[in-house]
Design a protein that fits this description.
The complex is a heterodimer of chains A (about 300) and B (about 900). Chain A is α+β, with helices and mostly antiparallel strands and about 300 residues long. Chain A is built from eight helices and 13 strands. Chain A has a five-stranded mixed sheet. Chain A has a two-stranded antiparallel ribbon with strand order 2-3. Chain B is an alpha/beta fold and about 900 residues long. Chain B has a six-stranded mixed sheet. In chain B, strands 3-2-1-6-7 form a five-stranded parallel sheet. The chains are: A alpha+beta (about 300), B alpha/beta (about 900).
């Protein structure tokens, strides 16, 4: 990580689920509202595409080529509706996006260099270099990046690269009314996150821990199905430049608890492949050489 | 912003995180500092998710909950004694004839009830007072000394005005000395028992009134577990007192009830007992419904108030002449003793030089109201064919309360003008898209005679103007772009209409046309002030802003304080409460982008946001010091008396809401006019005795103390009194507005309507926007899993919500965030439905208000959309 790395700290403990970040993202990045592949002029199609899901207050489902930001809603209310304090009933909300990983699977597998590390440490996409091969889609451990059927290329959050170049914060962080999303230097954000976890623990909210970097915190979940389970800060794929303060196990937020990059598993097999390739290559060359010799003989005639 | 200083915040009747998401950052700041947040609501919402405690409560039972808190505070001696004794009317003695709702034979009624008129006569609710000063005989109105000597009155400058007394503009105020006239109307001084022991003292009456509002009663009526109620009681009392303050936050969840006004008063009583009014981090935060609805109330979209909270002249009051109006409306012993200056300055602003004392400043040309002309009765009259035309702007009545009734009523109009940014449900009510009407039949456009004019309106960023937001702070905004095509600001429309009317009636000699002929309408901008790229035909919003602020009539110099306003025609002012805003707002226009409250502008933001009146963000802030003028505690220091300098001070730049040099130990002057009648320990200067009213002798039509009545439609009877409902509820027994049987079996489910973060009001500013529409694409009704199981309903399927008025189809959203209530052994289910949808726009759906009723609070005619009954059926029925 460069000292200059910029990112975001996502404090889910103060997210009110207002979705202003989702709207700000689409507005700034001029993402076709609503439907992606469906033209907005077809209003009926838009409505049908974006149907009521019945999944709490979430009607956009997941991150994709047209939703670069997505707020998750997790209702944790026990059957007895115990409400004597905050541990009895919780409604967790989390604004999710690309994490701009230190070891970015998408970037590592990109064959054309369309995905690249910016001067801010984030991962951006050169749309004109993307060939739509979709290797990156499978390489992302978070399911963030997706193929855009409209353009034949891939899309995801690019940390508002154009805004950052102008010295501005990301659009979503600017729109956030409760400072659940804070943009800044990753080093500063880590300090802020550590302070915040300590403050929450002091208030008895020992659930709080950091997902993305190991800042040394550990705690105990106070509510929900995982009550009393231990949690502690976790560094994820070398660190996440967009990292989270969570109040429950990662799985509750549909985040992997021990993500790894698919290409890491390829290393041994890739070695085998290389050796095979070398053997095949030598054999092939030998065969070619024999053929050349034959050809030469014919020419000599 | 003051919420950041609270030690506890109770959200009740408000879903602040969802409906006021930006302002919600202030209570979140308090929470980060260690404050406790509590949400009391029928539904577990996104606000509940942010709070330390979620407290469930059945819709419409707030007075029981708050009344029980009052009872807890009194019986456990948790009130701030000095505050209660000195700053409230707790010690005041009430008329011996007063009978309370619990007294023998009262059965839930106060004394003074007249069953024939369904109204209260309030004599027995009044204070006991010393003998009033003897009145001296007054000169008859309009008789100047010259006239008394038998001379002819000077001829009126306007034809048809002031020819004879009793005619238009009779000169009734010529020679009137208002100070003398007001002094001649001074009442006696209220009697008090500072020990609070007299059985007729407000404190003892209050104590008796709420004695049966117990935690057990809360459990039986509200459905709130007793231990949870006690947790709230303990939290707010532990976080109130000299060193701590608790705030209450409400929105329309408190107002939209047939007991709405009394409900809010209950919180006022509680906060006054706890000493939480006029102090930092205390108070009752009324969250208004949208950006400048506070400004709309101030300047004045309500039929019964003129700008600045001056009552509209009323044919049923003693308002016959300007003199009658002023003397009726002027309270001799409160800050409202200045009413003559506010009224005459306003008439000066409206009619300019055409108004003179001799023609009563053209007061008689103002229309007088004759009855309740608020929204619901207007539509009842429309249904009866009494209203021929309507101009609709910023409203969408086709989706409003009992919406099928309102849509049907609109068919009786000959013409309708709709100004809006999109073709709303109202503008399109004639179209073949309207279904589910009163008679259950589709309506063909052929059968609708109404001629409709749709005028495209500008959006907020496309017009100049000011906004007054929920904290009464005024902020100016310049337009960022011109609206497209023919779209213009609302201001353009009204200004243009006014100018057309003036041309139309220019040569009329009829007295009824005088107001139009003589109203000032000179808001054309100086051409040099209009930027090259802007439309040239828009009026200058800033000129109107200047008129509202007020100015010296001769020199045209803007005024900086309402204290400069006079009753002699030398000042013009559109609304006295706004006098002085200009100087701050002009600075804002230059500097606001560089100002941040709490950083380079004090936390009360005196320059970033000017608050009416007189830049006082915290009303009654003299109460932030004790009776002797010292801060209640160093931690809660705000306004205080500087004995050395003999003046009140506030170190944060806040405007002081008190007479600046009136010492805390100043005695009340029984012969003093206005606030001079009060002592130096009377912070509530808009009240006739300067005290916070625990008991309200006037101002409320349905009782001096808040009392629990069930909503007009409720599944259960009133456990506290024989009288089930508010006895003087406004009801309309008209076709298409049938009420559900009270405590009947056909409609057993409690329902409340509400808003979501993703949409705004009836959806006109959100359902047309794809980015918002996709976030909440369809109407739904929230219900508990227990209820869904009982009805065989699965999550996401369509259900039918019906009442005696109509029905609505919606998706079921089954969630544990709702719960059944166990009320004294009876299980009552509650559901909730957002009211954002209609048949136009990108995201369309049924109208939630098909099911609501025309029924209203007797004080302010607000409907009861927050608590009524319904039936839920599986599928589209």
């Amino acid at each position: 990580m460069t000292e200059n790395a910029r990112g975001m700290f996502v404090d889910t403990s103060v997210c009110t689920g207002c979705k202003a970040c989702q709207v700000a993202c689409k507005q700034w990045n001029e993402i076709e509202p609503g439907a992606g592949p469906i033209p907005m002029t077809d209003e009926k199609a838009v409505v049908e595409h974006r149907a009521f899901t019945g999944d709490s207050y979430d009607n956009t489902g997941h991150l994709n080529a047209y939703d670069w930001r997505h707020v998750k809603f997790i209702e944790q209310i026990g059957p007895d509706r115990s409400t004597s304090d905050r541990t009895g009933a919780r409604w967790l909300m989390m604004s999710d996006s690309c994490k701009h990983c230190e070891q970015a699977g998408c970037l590592e597998v990109c064959p054309t260099g369309a995905l690249y590390r910016t001067q801010f440490g984030s991962v951006d996409i050169h749309q004109d270099v993307c060939i739509g091969c979709r290797y990156c889609v499978g390489a992302c451990p978070f399911g963030v990046i997706e193929f855009n059927k409209n353009t034949g290329r891939v899309n995801k959050c690019i940390l508002c690269q154009d805004r950052l170049e102008q010295g501005m914060s990301t659009a979503c962080a600017k729109a956030c009314p409760t400072s659940s999303l804070t943009y800044g230097k990753v080093d500063d954000l880590k300090r802020m996150a550590a302070d915040r976890v300590r403050a929450l623990h002091a208030r008895g909210q020992t659930d709080a821990y950091i997902y993305g970097w190991d800042l040394g915190n550990s705690g105990t979940i106070t509510a929900g199905p995982n009550k009393n389970a231990a949690v502690k800060d976790m560094e994820v794929v070398g660190g996440l430049n967009v990292f989270y303060l969570l109040m429950d196990k990662p799985e509750v937020y549909s985040l992997p608890s021990a993500p790894s990059l698919p290409q890491r598993n390829f290393a041994p097999s890739a070695g085998v492949s290389l050796i095979s390739a070398a053997v095949l290559g030598v054999t092939g060359l030998a065969a070619f050489r024999r053929r050349r010799m034959t050809d030469a003989a014919v020419t000599a005639d | 912003m003051d919420l950041q200083h609270s030690d506890a915040v109770v959200f009740m009747g408000s879903n602040m995180a969802e409906c006021h998401p930006v302002g919600f950052k202030w209570p979140m700041k308090a929470k980060a500092r260690g404050a406790t947040l509590i949400h009391v609501d029928p539904r577990f919402t996104r606000t509940s998710a942010m709070c330390d405690y979620y407290v469930p409560m059945r819709s419409g039972t707030d007075i029981v909950f708050l009344g029980a808190l009052i009872n807890y505070v009194i019986t456990n001696n948790k009130y701030l004694e000095e505050y209660v004794k000195e700053f409230t009317n707790a010690a005041t003695l009430i008329n011996e004839g007063f009978k309370d709702t619990d007294d023998p034979g009262q059965d839930g009624f106060f004394s003074g009830y007249n069953p024939q008129t369904r109204a209260y006569e309030r004599t027995t609710w009044q204070y006991q007072t010393d003998q009033a000063p003897v009145r001296v005989p007054e000169a008859p109105p309009g008789q100047t000394p010259e006239v008394r000597e038998g001379q002819e009155r000077p001829p009126s400058p306007l034809p048809g005005v002031g020819a004879r007394p009793g005619q238009l503009g009779a000169g009734t105020i010529v020679g009137a000395n208002f100070a003398e006239l007001i002094a001649n109307r001074l009442p006696g001084t209220p009697k008090v028992d500072k020990a609070l022991q007299d059985k007729n003292s407000v404190f003892q009456i209050l104590k008796r009134h709420y004695a049966r509002y117990t935690p057990e009663m809360v459990e039986k009526i509200c459905g709130t577990p007793k231990d949870l109620f006690l947790k709230v009681a303990e939290t707010i009392t532990a976080n109130s007192g000299k060193d701590k303050t608790t705030a209450f936050v409400y929105a329309v969840g408190w107002t939209q009830h047939t007991t709405g006004v009394q409900l809010i008063r209950t919180a006022g009583i509680l906060q006054a007992l706890l000493g939480n009014i006029g102090r930092p981090g205390g108070g009752i935060m009324a969250l208004r419904g949208h950006a400048t609805i506070q400004g709309c109330t101030d300047i004045a979209t309500l039929y019964n108030i003129h700008p600045g909270y001056l009552n509209t002249p009323n044919a049923n009051a003693n308002h016959d002449t300007l003199r009658d109006y002023i003397l009726t409306e002027t309270q001799p012993t409160s800050f409202w003793s200045n009413t003559p200056a506010y009224v005459i300055s306003q008439l000066r602003a409206w009619f300019g030089d055409a108004g003179t004392p001799e023609n009563d400043y053209l007061y008689d040309t103002l229309p007088k109201i004759t009855a309740d002309h608020s929204h619901l009765p207007i539509f009842v009259e429309m249904a009866e064919g009494k209203i021929k035309g309507m101009i609709v702007t910023g409203q969408n009545p086709a989706t409003s309360i009992n919406s099928s009734f309102q849509r049907k009523a609109m068919r009786n109009l000959d013409w309708m003008v709709v100004l809006d940014s999109y073709e709303t449900e109202t503008a399109a009510f004639w179209r073949d898209v309207v279904y589910n009407d009163v008679d259950g039949k589709r309506v063909s456009p052929k059968d609708i005679k109404t001629e409709i004019f749709f005028l495209p309106a500008a959006h907020i960023a496309e017009k100049d103007g000011s906004m007054t937001q929920t904290q009464r702070t005024v902020q100016w905004h310049d337009k960022a772009a011109d609206p497209p095509g023919d779209a213009r600001s609302d201001l353009f429309f009204w200004y243009d209409l006014g100018k057309r009317l003036k041309r139309r009636y220019a040569s009329s000699t009829a007295p009824r046309d005088l107001a139009i002929r003589h109203m000032t309408l000179d808001y054309d901008p100086a051409p040099a002030d209009v930027a090259e790229w802007k439309h040239k035909d828009e009026p200058s919003a800033f000129k109107i802003f200047t008129e509202i602020n007020g100015f010296d009539w001769k020199t045209k110099a803007p005024l900086n304080s309402f204290a400069s306003l006079t009753a002699d025609g030398n000042t013009a002012c559109g609304a006295w409460i706004y006098t002085g805003m200009l100087q701050v707002v002009q600075g804002q226009m230059v500097n606001r982008a560089r100002m941040t409250p709490g950083k380079n502008d004090g936390w009360v933001s005196p320059n970033w946001g000017w608050a009416w009146p007189g830049n006082r963000h915290q009303l009654y802030n003299r109460a932030s010091a004790d009776a002797a003028g010292n801060p209640w505690s160093p931690r809660k220091k705000f306004t205080y008396w500087d004995a050395a300098a003999r003046t009140w001070k506030n170190d944060s730049g806040e405007g002081i809401d008190f007479v600046l040099t009136k010492a805390p130990d100043a005695a009340a002057n029984p012969r003093g006019i206005g606030v001079a009648f009060h002592s130096g320990a009377a912070p509530f200067l808009l009240k006739t005795d300067g005290k916070a009213w625990l008991f309200a002798p006037t101002g409320t039509s349905d009782g001096p103390l808040p009392t629990h009545y069930e909503p007009w439609e409720s599944p259960v009877k009133n456990l506290l009194y024989k009288q089930d409902q508010n006895p003087i509820t406004k009801i309309w027994n008209v076709e298409g507005n049938k009420y559900n049987e009270f405590a009947g079996n056909e409609f057993p489910t409690v329902i409340t309507t509400y808003r979501l973060t993703e949409h705004h009001l009836s959806g006109v500013m959100s359902r047309w926007l794809p980015w918002l529409a996709e976030l909440m694409p369809e109407l739904f009704v929230e219900m508990s899993p227990e209820f869904a199981a009982e009805k065989g309903i699965t999550n996401g399927e369509y259900v039918t919500v019906s009442s005696s008025r109509g029905k609505t189809h919606a998706r079921a959203l089954v969630t544990k965030r709702l719960r059944p209530f166990n009320l004294d052994g009876k299980v009552v289910h509650q559901v909730g439905m957002p009211w954002h949808w209609g048949y136009m726009g990108i995201s369309t759906g049924d109208i939630a208000n098909n099911t609501t009723a025309l029924v209203a609070d007797p004080n302010v005619s607000i409907h009861e959309g927050k608590a009524f009954t319904c039936k839920i059926e599986k599928g589209k029925v």
